[in-house]
Fold these 3 entries.
Entry 1:
Amino acid sequence: MVEASDPGAAVATTRRRRGSVLEQAIHAAVLDLVIEQGAAGVTMEAVAARAATSKPVLYRRWADRAALLRETLVPLAMDAIPHTDTGSYRGDMLAILRGWADFFASPHGAVGVAIVGAMPQDPELAAAFRDGVIAWRKEAMAETLTRAIDRGEVRPDVPFEVARELGQAVLWHRFLVTGDPITDDLVTHIVDEILIPYAGA
Amino acid sequence: MVEASDPGAAVATTRRRRGSVLEQAIHAAVLDLVIEQGAAGVTMEAVAARAATSKPVLYRRWADRAALLRETLVPLAMDAIPHTDTGSYRGDMLAILRGWADFFASPHGAVGVAIVGAMPQDPELAAAFRDGVIAWRKEAMAETLTRAIDRGEVRPDVPFEVARELGQAVLWHRFLVTGDPITDDLVTHIVDEILIPYAGA
DNA sequence: CTCCTTGCATACGGTGGCGTGTCTTAGAAG
DNA sequence: CTTCTAAGACACGCCACCGTATGCAAGGAG
């Protein structure tokens, strides 16, 4: 995942910690397979082969393939979107939407489709994604909006439920449904012509 | 599906026409399986069993499972959304968004997820969906917007690319990504507080 | 009434993934 | 140096699905 496990030191102290090199290689293999063949391509055999290990290793750490998928994809999605205070509502929203745009354009974008496509058949993945990624995004957007209200950039009675998802909804829609391009012009247009008029004081 | 095939008359004339009762039963079986188990659950064997027929029948009419899926799902999606002239931009948009909302709430909503989830691995499905459903929706929205511009309800320079997808993007996003409820209050809110201000003259 | 065409269901070999049992090897303790 | 323990690789049986070849039944032509 993120904290890169500072290789040298950690290995020196304990010979092999719980989630270490091997586990990381497995997650990487899963990610590769998702990108190449979608969630359906993530079989235990394929993962084992790709990670240069064997199936018993996988079954030792994860109950089944669904659990392995969950624990690989959800953390990835968590890291995709920046959450920084740029000092203005416009700047914050631009940063966030550009984060989504970059995510969709990157190979990791396939993770988004994989999760969405797998959720209906995997309630646990759905719960993990919604309680993890979505809930966290909502929280982050709530903070962004609260800061903007404090600054007087956004009207205090703006409907949070809608304001927080309006921008990313268009990007997700293009990415998943229409396949239309997501340009930076589109992002700035959304912010300046839709989000700010809608939320503006 | 929708038009109930007026059983008596058709059977009387030609004993068994090309796409008739059996073919319809097969499509129904595919739909059931998609709803119950997602696109991955649509195996040739399961379809044959569910439709009370056998695999050779399926292979006689469709080259492979992807073709069967395409020819079942795409027409369904085409029938989902109304395309009527209500006489006003607000009325048109309310009708369209309510059409999407009803579609998502119905069992057929699963078809939406199935298509989105399967597109990355099935270029032909993606092409069929985008050249069929999406292109047709774009055209319909273009007509709706043109009428609205003629009536003076919408500014002539409104960006079509964004205006036509803005409303449904929020609904798709809730349906696929967040799982948040899609209420009629939300629909009217989107129309009155977002679409009309954005596109208004 | 018989033949023949048409079209379906049953049955088959082949493949690939699942989940697990067994053996081997490498590191820790005595 | 020897023994013990733990972890991983190999291999197996199982099952579901694929795609096709074969045998059977029903309706039209002679």
Entry 2:
Amino acid sequence: MLESIQDDGGVTVSSEQLARRGHTTAAQVRKDLSHFGSFGKRGLGYSVDELRDRLRIILGLDQVWPVVLVGAGRIGSALFEYPDFKRRGYECVAIVDSNPEKIGRKWGELVIQPTAKLESLIKELCATLVILAVPASAAQLVAECSVNAGINGILNFAPVQLQVPDGIPVENVNLVMELEALSFQITRASKT
Amino acid sequence: MLESIQDDGGVTVSSEQLARRGHTTAAQVRKDLSHFGSFGKRGLGYSVDELRDRLRIILGLDQVWPVVLVGAGRIGSALFEYPDFKRRGYECVAIVDSNPEKIGRKWGELVIQPTAKLESLIKELCATLVILAVPASAAQLVAECSVNAGINGILNFAPVQLQVPDGIPVENVNLVMELEALSFQITRASKT
DNA sequence: TTGTGTGAATCCCTTCACAGCG
DNA sequence: CGCTGTGAAGGGATTCACACAA
């Protein structure tokens, strides 16, 4: 939703307007925002500029996050080329793959490294996030390796529930599950 | 989680075991399953085979879902090549793109079609799902076109909130948002 | 005895409603 | 006035606890 808030010096937006954009309710927007402080003006709404800046800080987008990409397959390359990535403060600082044919190839400025180097790369480059774009069978091992190296968060595309220590946030993107959610809803709706 | 349940004729699994795998609680598993009927055996647990079959039906996985892929870019190709896709009952029946250079190319057996044909393709092939792997600027238009053609569900990779009629399920996969969720959690944790 | 299925208690999130500030 | 911020109410989901079936 952030991307829809332009820099319009002085312009304000009401919780009602934000709610419409985000498919939610005005009360919900106000409650959520109030959770982080009260930066709206009564009778006016929220200053667009201030709102953007505050949310940037709350979401940690006021800094650059060094990311290591694990898996130089199709998903990996789709992510790597995704323009919003860098634009939003996520910088790919290393690419790792286990396939000997891919190791040594260059993607942009980066040379694909062997998986064996993952741990040392994370440490040396002070990477905070890893993106796991690897087969399910390899994901747990890579996750453990990353945690050992001191990673702060994991974005996991492999269709497995990773077992990681408490306190290491994991976000899962499971394409098949998304489709299953759709087929469930369709099936469900057609039975009523 | 389904993929972790093997065919082991006669073997049973307890809510406790399922809970561990799914990072949840035994009570949660029992409540969820009981919502669809009571197919566990007291003192034993759930028959793995029966559980799998029942869930397949509940999730609508006992049928093949014809899918149209819109956008033959990197994300599109990653999805198209994803082996679990077909294995789980999702069959790509058409590929559509707006780039004249891509139209006419073959991916496997399928020829990439122009976007103009989307509506007729959905109708002719009785597609139930569309996958939107297109830029944000094109997504809303494609969604509307798909809805007009009678689509049943949308898997949206574009970073926009699609406006679709009630009753058409939409699942969103927003890669940047997933990363933002991670950086938020990390930022949050480091402030306590 | 083991582990399900389920009411009851609890928690959390959403919605309501309105006091109060600009 | 208009719209935020927030207690209070409401509702849905999670957790507890236990009767009961195998």
Entry 3:
Amino acid sequence: MGKIIRSNKDLGAAIRLARKNKDLRQVDVARKASIRQALVSELETGATTAKLDTVIRVLASLDLDLSIVPRRKTGFDPTAY
Amino acid sequence: MGKIIRSNKDLGAAIRLARKNKDLRQVDVARKASIRQALVSELETGATTAKLDTVIRVLASLDLDLSIVPRRKTGFDPTAY
DNA sequence: CGGCATTATCTGTTGAATCGTATATATTGA
DNA sequence: TCAATATATACGATTCAACAGATAATGCCG
């Protein structure tokens, strides 16, 4: 179902995609989530590892939720190398 | 599907439940995730807001994944009071 | 009760996330 | 092209997660 997040890069890509789909600017998301525009930029580019609180607030401002799902066995595990 | 996480309390409950189901001790999860047992305790009791990296590593050690899903229908929102 | 295992909490320290603010660099539209 | 808008970066200051390393509290079972 939803997109699996295993790194801050994954998170950033998902956030940016969702934001574009809603036709919002970084500053709009920032205001809704009570953070700086600069931080939204940093999150989207995966430049920083955010705190869970921050992630939840940003996602909420995009009408998204964080969910815990069983790890699906996928063929190729890049961390195995 | 998966459990929705909207607070560190939610996360803590989910982690503890998953850990119990796998019959692991906090120190086991801590070793797998390369963190202290004390931190696992703090996370489970919701005493702290973890960094995304930490959350991902703990969940991975329990064979769980973080996923982004569209926000479910807005029935009753306890934060509205 | 007594003892072992597990979990919770403490102190001081370090590093990183976030801030405010400002500015530099795209990107877009007229 | 030019200007307005949007995004990325910079920098010092503040806040807080995570650490090491104990120890205290709790749970469990003989």
